[in-house]
Design goal:
The protein is built from two helices and six strands; from the N terminus they run βαββαβββ. With about 100 residues, it is of the alpha+beta class. β2 and β3 form a beta hairpin.
Length: about 100
Amino acid sequence: MTKLYVGNLPFTATDEGVNALFSQHGTVERVSMITDRETGRPRGFAFVEMPNADAARAMQALNGADFDGRALRVNEAQDRERSGGGNRSGGPRRY
């Protein structure tokens, strides 16, 4: 399974619209539209999970493609490490 980052989405994009677009290139397992925590409004990007071969086809076909007047950015998502607190250095705090 591959997770794709889909950037430069129009703020009017929906889960269903993104799903329909990517379904043309294979099986879509999940679409996660990212919204602002405070306002609930879309942030203009999403993550799409697809089987590896389908994801490769979708990435090649849709990167730079027009979607409601915007050129999509589609690439493989990079896993981000989640931090458990405010200490971002990773080492012990020194005061």
